[in-house]
Specification:
heterodimer, A: 261 residues, mainly alpha, 86% helix, B: 246 residues, alpha/beta, Rossmann fold, 6-stranded mixed sheet
């Protein structure tokens, strides 16, 4: 065969495969959304997932925010000192945390913890025929497994972001007061006075979107896991990678939508 | 009660079922035997609506081409690895169906019903609050059996019920299946390559070979048959018409 045609054929097949994968993912997302609003609803499963995804993610999100807030204050101080603008440290640290770093780093940490866990759990259920068992027991896995996880992640993530924001600002405050010589009450007043409602709200909206994406990736790759340990491992890895990429790309799109002039 | 007509199923280029037809009368116990990879589990999934046949028709309990949720009230299923839900204790696994759906039971009576079924399969009440991971393989099979019979369905499916069990436990599970099928008057389809299950459980035997039902008859006829394919399989001989890899 002509090598140019062969290369074009290979490219075409790759594009078709990629588009097919995107189509299946989007179809799954639409199906999952449709199940969120149709009964039956599994309240106990939702409560369990709120604990798993929300409550148990608090330590990792909190620690991430604490150290990020501290490092951010140090960096902003180092940068602003060049222009004698050290006074901006509290306000920029706060804005950086609530608009960007709180939701994005929180989302990435939850992606690592939750997308992997969901994909591994559902993938194992699939390879051990538990999904088939659910269906023979008249229980739709989309309603029993997928919907509660997506709802829980979408609800829990803004709360995690809010807590992370507060802890991150506290980290900045701690470094600002103890390392950089800021006056404590002044630091706090600058932070509070400078922050606007939309700064915080935009971060919480981002958190909800990231939570949805994390749970969606975990559920999708779990439900489409291959056979055996290798299949589940691959599903877990892909769920975390795709969730992370989607979080970063969604963050850019949302930032454009919220803050572009 | 169960009718499969000209079932075809392929996965990509691999044709697994190429025209399987059979009927199981009410109260009859059919055991389907066949080598590994001959499509026994795929056939079972087609019957349960977990896989859609490419061609052909399945009729179960008067439902044509039923979906799994339509069959749930009529069918109980014991999966090969028991397929118990790891996140639920034993009794909630058994009562799973009873606690959901339009006719759902309250927690207390559902637990009572689960304990009764667990007792029926020889499980002590203390096991009810254990989690599946805390049970041995044989106990998991018993719990799977209890879950299958929890709603007292008129049709039961068993996929390799003795796989992975020692001979004594396998005999216990076979005896339990036979007793339960008889006392419930259930129609049963069992997929296996365990000849002990064939002897203990079958009213009738069907052999799946090269995508089709190659042979059907009673258990006694199967064991006495001189058909070269059937005898090679039943006796587990290496030499014969069924190709083997060595």
């Amino acid at each position: 065969m002509n090598p140019i045609l062969a290369a074009l054929g290979a490219i075409g097949r790759s594009v078709a495969t990629g588009l097919g994968a995107v189509g299946r993912f989007v179809t799954f997302a639409a199906l999952a959304l449709s199940h969120l609003v149709r009964p039956p609803f599994y309240g106990r499963e939702l409560a369990l997932q709120l604990v798993q995804i929300g409550w148990l993610s608090l330590p990792v999100v909190g620690l991430t925010a604490l150290f990020t807030g501290g490092a951010l204050a140090l960096q902003i101080y180092a940068g602003s000192a060049r222009f004698n603008a050290e006074f901006a440290v509290p306000s920029i640290t706060a804005i950086g945390m609530v608009r960007e770093l709180g939701p994005v780093l929180g989302g990435l940490m939850v992606a690592a913890r939750v997308a992997s866990s969901i994909a591994a759990e559902i993938g194992t259920m699939k390879v051990s025929e538990q999904i088939d068992a659910l269906r023979t027991l008249a229980t739709d896995p989309m309603k029993y497994l997928v919907a509660p996880r997506i709802v829980a992640a979408t609800l829990a993530m803004p709360v995690l972001v809010a807590v992370g924001d507060a802890i991150g600002i506290l980290g900045g405050y701690s470094v600002g007061v103890n390392r950089l010589g800021f006056d404590g009450p002044t630091y706090l007043r600058n932070t509070i006075d400078f922050l606007e409602f939309w700064d915080v709200a935009s971060g919480l909206v981002k958190g909800a979107v990231f939570g949805f994406l994390v749970a969606l990736c975990g559920c999708y790759f779990g439900m489409h896991s291959g056979r055996g340990a290798q299949g589940v491992g691959e599903a877990t890895k892909t769920a975390v990678v795709l969730a992370s990429i989607l979080i970063l790309s969604a963050n850019y799109i949302l930032t454009e939508a919220f803050f572009s002039a | 009660m169960i009718r499969a007509q000209d079932i075809h199923k392929a996965f990509g280029p691999k044709r697994v079922l190429t025209g399987v037809s059979f009927e199981v009368a009410r109260g009859e116990s059919l055991v389907v035997i066949g080598g590994s990879g001959t499509g026994k589990s795929v056939l079972l999934k087609c019957l349960l609506g977990l896989e859609s046949p490419d061609r052909g028709e399945v009729v179960i309990a008067g439902l044509t081409r039923p979906r799994p949720h339509e069959l749930a009230a009529h069918v109980g299923m014991l999966f090969q690895g028991a397929a118990l839900f790891d996140s639920l204790p034993v009794w909630q696994n058994v009562a799973f169906r009873l606690m959901r759906g339009p006719a759902r039971m309250a927690r207390a009576p559902a637990r009572e019903a689960a304990l009764e079924k667990l007792a029926r399969v020889g499980m002590a009440p203390e096991s009810a609050d254990l989690y599946p991971a805390e049970l041995s393989g044989g106990m998991q099979k018993r719990v799977g059996l209890a879950r299958a019979i929890a709603g007292e369905p008129p049709i039961l499916f068993f996929d390799e019920p003795t796989a992975g069990l020692d001979p004594i436990l396998a005999a216990v599970i076979n005896a339990l299946i036979r007793e339960i099928v008889t006392e419930m008057g259930a129609t049963a389809v069992t997929i296996t390559h365990d000849m002990r299950t064939l002897r203990d459980v079958a009213d009738r035997v069907a052999m799946l070979h090269e995508g089709r039902l190659y042979w059907q008859g009673t258990a006694a006829e199967a064991l006495a048959s001189d058909d070269p394919v059937l005898t090679q399989f039943i006796q587990g001989r290496i030499d014969g018409p069924i190709p083997t890899l060595r």
